Structures are given as C-alpha cells and as structure tokens.
Amino acid sequence: MPRRPRLPALADENAAAGGVGTLDRALSILDAFSALRPTPTLADLAAHTRIAKSTVLRMLASLQHAGLVLRLADGRYAVGAAVERLQRVRAGSVPTDALVLPVLRELATLTGESASYYVRQGGQRLCQFRVDSPRPVRDHLQVGDLLPLDRGAGGRVLCAYAGAQGEVFDTIRRDGVAVLAGDRDPEIAGIAAPVFDASGALAGALTLSMPAQRLQAAHAGPVKAAAQRLTRLLGG
Length: 236
Known about the structure:
Elements: H1 21-28, H2 42-49, H3 53-65, E1 69-71, E2 77-79, H4 81-93, H5 96-111, E3 114-121, E4 124-131, E5 146-148, H6 153-160, H7 167-175, E6 178-181, E7 188-196, E8 202-211, H8 220-233
Antiparallel strand pairs: 1-2, 3-4, 3-8, 4-5, 6-7, 7-8
Helix pairs in contact: 5-8, 6-7
C-alpha cells in the first residue's frame, strides 16, 4: 500500500523571506509550548511542527544548549530560563504603546473605523490607546476615558475572559469575538476581541467602534486577527 505523502513542515508554510529554513523549523518547536500545553512530549512537538521525531530531537539538543528549552525528568519538555530572561529584557526595552498603536492604526486604516485598546480598571474599563476613524461621523472617545465594564463590546470581552457567566459571555468565548450594536449607547456599535500577555492571562480588549448603522459583521475577522497579532507581540 503506497505511503501517504508527508505534509510540509509547519514552518515551511510561513517561512521568513530571506531567512534560513532550518532555523525556521527549529523555532517552530517553541510555538508548540502554550498555557494549555506547557510541557509537551517529543511526540507532541513532532506532531505540531510536522517534522520527524529524529530531526526534532536534534533540534531540541540545540535549543536546550541555548537554554531555550529544558528537558524534564519524565521526558517532557518545558520552556527554558533563557526565554524568561529575554522576556524581561524585552519588557524593559519596548514600551507598550510602540506595540499597540501600530496595530490600531493598521486596523483603523483597513476598516475606516475607530480602533481602541481597553484594560480593566476596577469596576470599569480604561481606554488606554486609541486611533480615531478618519470619517467625520464617529464615536467620540479619548485616551483616559472610563467606560462601563458591563456594557459595550470591549467591556463584554473583558468580563467574558475574566470568567463571567451567561449566554452572551459563553458566545464570546466560543467565537473569540464580540459583535454588538446599541449595547452601551443605542447609536454606537462595537466589535472586540481579547488580547493575552506572555503568561496567558487576559491583557486587554482590542475594539473597533462605529455608528450603529455602519456596523459590518465582516469586520469581526480583521478585529480577531489584529488581537491575535497584538497577543503575539506581547509574547502571548
């Protein structure tokens, strides 16, 4: 019986332009570590990267030597101490606005609507960063404004990923995005998605807002993609 052709390695589907393929494949091993799978087995790593176990094992030897990966006593693998050291260096050298604002600008340019980043502050949500829509008719908010935590797409996302119970929060967690019109203000609509930090904890909510009549459900995709991109930039 003929053997099935092997799928290309995960890294080969998103190779760095002008980069080194072998290095791309080795670094794709690190992508297999997550909050849900903090200590994968060799088989887990091979399945995630779509690289033969024997090759993964050799790459792991180099990653272990660099302190990026640690082999545990039970044969599983964990992220090495060098990752934490690099994260500390990065956290102290890259201001948050340098990561968030370019993502917001790109989303606002793509959609023509206002893009904001909210964080929880007690029982409210704080607009920490914002890029206004270029259109003259838009919702008017400023950095530093406090909004309700229990209303609006951004607030609903922050509550959903803090463990709030109810159908609306279950739907947000299932879809990974909130699309709401008139929830905070009858004339305003919003689309929001969660952003996570390096520890896997909720960092904030990335929100696209607009007059209710301009709400487009199709913008949910770009909002989710922007939130996922920002999560990666934050190390999540």
